[in-house]
């Protein structure tokens, strides 16, 4: 069993970092979880997406490298052709509520 590192951001936008030895770490409702983080471009996102939400991954220049209309609460994302570095994941719903978290590609 390998250790998973991920960052969790609640809808109240509080940031906490957790480490788990479980392959399927328990995630609380209404939290944005990205794991593993850091990663090599393939990672999972868990979040209680509201209808009409958009997930946007943005580089340090503010350019969107991936935009998704989520269809379920767990996504496996592969970023191909992106540089190593820090990215920001934004989730925006139709009420203009924004949740964000940092993503590190190694």
Q: What is the highest CATH level, the class? A: Mainly Beta
Number of strands: 9
**Contiguous uncertain segments of 5+ residues:** 10-29
Order of strands, widest sheet: 2-1-3-4-7
N/C terminus separation: 22 Å
CATH topology: Immunoglobulin-like
How many structural domains does the protein architecture include?
Answer: 1
| Number of DSSP helical runs | 0
Reported for the largest beta sheet, the result is: 5 strands, antiparallel
Arithmetic mean pLDDT: 80
How much helix is in the residues? Answer: under 10%
- Any idea what the radius of gyration is? 13 Å
Structural class: mainly beta
Provide the CATH architecture.
Sandwich
Q: H/E element string?
A: EEEEEEEEE
What portion of residues belong to β-strands? over 45%
Protein architecture, described:
By secondary structure, the protein is mainly beta. It has one domain: Immunoglobulin-like. The protein is 0% helix and 51% strand. The protein is built from no helices and nine strands. Strands 2-1-3-4-7 form a five-stranded antiparallel sheet, with no helix packed on it. Strand 1 (4-10) and strand 2 form a beta hairpin.
């Amino acid at each position: 069993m390998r250790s998973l590192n991920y960052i969790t951001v609640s809808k109240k936008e509080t940031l906490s970092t957790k480490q788990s030895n479980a392959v399927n770490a328990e995630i609380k409702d209404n939290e944005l979880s990205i794991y593993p983080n850091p990663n090599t471009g393939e990672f999972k996102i868990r979040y209680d997406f509201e209808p009409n939400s958009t997930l946007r991954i943005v580089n340090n220049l503010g350019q969107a490298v991936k935009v998704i209309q989520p269809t379920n609460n767990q996504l496996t994302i592969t970023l191909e052709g992106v540089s190593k570095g820090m990215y920001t994941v934004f989730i925006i719903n139709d009420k203009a509520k924004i949740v964000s978290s940092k993503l590190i590609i190694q």
